[in-house]
Amino acid sequence: MTFYSGFSLSHDKTLFDPYLKESEYTIAGFSYGAIKALEEVLLSKKRIDTLQLFSPAFFHDKNEKFKRMQMIYFLKEKQAYLKNFLDSCFLPGRIDESIVIEQGSEAQLRELLYYEWKTDQLRALKERGIEIEVYLGSEDRIIDPEKTKAFFLPYATTYMINHAGHTLQTKEKNEQD
User: Fold this and answer.
1) Tens digits of per-residue pLDDT, 136-152?
2) Are 156 and 53 contacting, i.e. CB atoms less than 8 angstroms apart?
3) CB atoms within 10 A of CB 154
């Protein structure tokens, strides 16, 4: 299995253990990593059975002003931006201490915000026989889970995790740890 981490994260694969298909024919990614997972599948000539997208970075519903403001804040106050961003990712719980926080780059954030998910690409993967699964948290504060679900639903099996945020963790899960 190949897994791509989210923006400014590494070792975040463990967050998705309950959902991951551990197979050499599965490619998965979280948030920004979902973009990278999709791109690998699109370019790959090898056998792939499943593409798993966890809270894919979907900002089609955000206007140019929102995206520009995100970039300005990131460039002006990078540490504050990353703290706020990561805190929002892990809500309604807390940041898992096993996750490694890294410095995301301007180019990565720009790609994340401006990435265009294309229905013809998703349709082509489905026609190739690749099962696409999308997992969303009902309380996600990074992306709009309902709009993301509506976009992916014609091409993917879509799961909405109740009371979960962007990392699909719930407050109850974090309290048990």
Assistant:
1) 999 999 999 999 999 99
2) yes
3) 11
Q: How far is CA 164 from CA 8, 67, 108, in A?
A: 20, 24, 25
Helices (H) and strands (E) in the chain, counts: 7, 7
Per residue in 152-173, pLDDT tens? 999 999 999 999 999 998 865 4
d(CA 3, CA 108): 17
* pLDDT at residue 83, as a whole number: 87
Q: How far apart are CA 163 and CA 2, in angstroms?
A: 27
User: What is the average pLDDT value for the chain, to the nearest integer?
Assistant: 92
Q: Is the peptide bond prior to 92 cis by the omega test (within 30 degrees of 0)? A: yes
| Rounded-to-integer distance, Cα 98 and Cα 15, Å | 9
Judge whether 91 and 2 are in contact, CB under 8 Å: no
Q: Which CATH architecture has domain 2-176?
A: 3-Layer(aba) Sandwich (3.40)
CB 29 within 8 A of CB 38: yes
Closest by alpha carbon to 37, among 105, 150, 117?
Answer: 117
- Alpha-helix runs per DSSP H in the chain: 32-43, 64-76, 78-90, 106-114, 119-127, 145-152, 171-176
